[in-house]
Amino acid sequence: xxxxxxxxxxxxxxxxxxxxxxxxxxxxxxxxxxxxxxxxxxxxxxxxxxxxxxxxxxxxxxxxxxxxxxxxxxxxxxxxxxxxxxxxxxxxxxxxxxxxxxxxxxxxxxxxxxxxxxxxxxxxxxxxxxxxxxxxxxxxxxxxxxxxxxxxxxxxxxxx
Length: 160
Fold this sequence. Notes:
There is one protein chain. The chain contains no helices and 15 strands. By secondary structure, the chain is an all-beta fold. The strands form four sheets. A seven-stranded antiparallel β-sheet has the order 2-5-6-10-9-8-7, with no helix packed on it. A four-stranded antiparallel β-sheet has the order 4-3-11-12, with no helix packed on it. The mean pLDDT is about 95. It has a single domain, classed as Metal Binding Protein, Guanine Nucleotide Exchange Factor, Chain A (Beta Complex). It has strands at about 15, 25-30, 30-35, 40-45, 45-50, 60, 70-80, 85-90, 95-100, 115, 125, 130, 130-135, 140-145, 145-150. Helices cover about 0% and strands about 40% of the residues. This is DUF427 domain-containing protein. Pfam families: NTP_transf_9 (PF04248).
């Protein structure tokens, strides 16, 4: 299935169609904050962004910037052809609301142990802007005004 027409980015925006495949890992000094109700789950200015063609960025927060005691391993795993085996976490009482790569593939080694959070299940912000979740139950991309699609996960994108 073909992707819908690429949305041309405006000033200060990125197109997910300019992201590479395999994905690129880059450090971000943007303020990333994750909350569950009134509980601050994570707060960082040193997250990693993973940028992959057709996907909104996924922010991975260093474990040191995740609040103590909010994560419990679920025992669930999945496999990414690029990053390796992911392990999933319950965040407070929300099962599988986060994941990490404890031993990622060599190209992603710097993000070992950093935690990504599903914005469909938690409140996530980037520099104070509320994140919109990527469509689809599997994907965990963070959509902000700074990124344009169309995005993988929306109806009709399974074959991308």
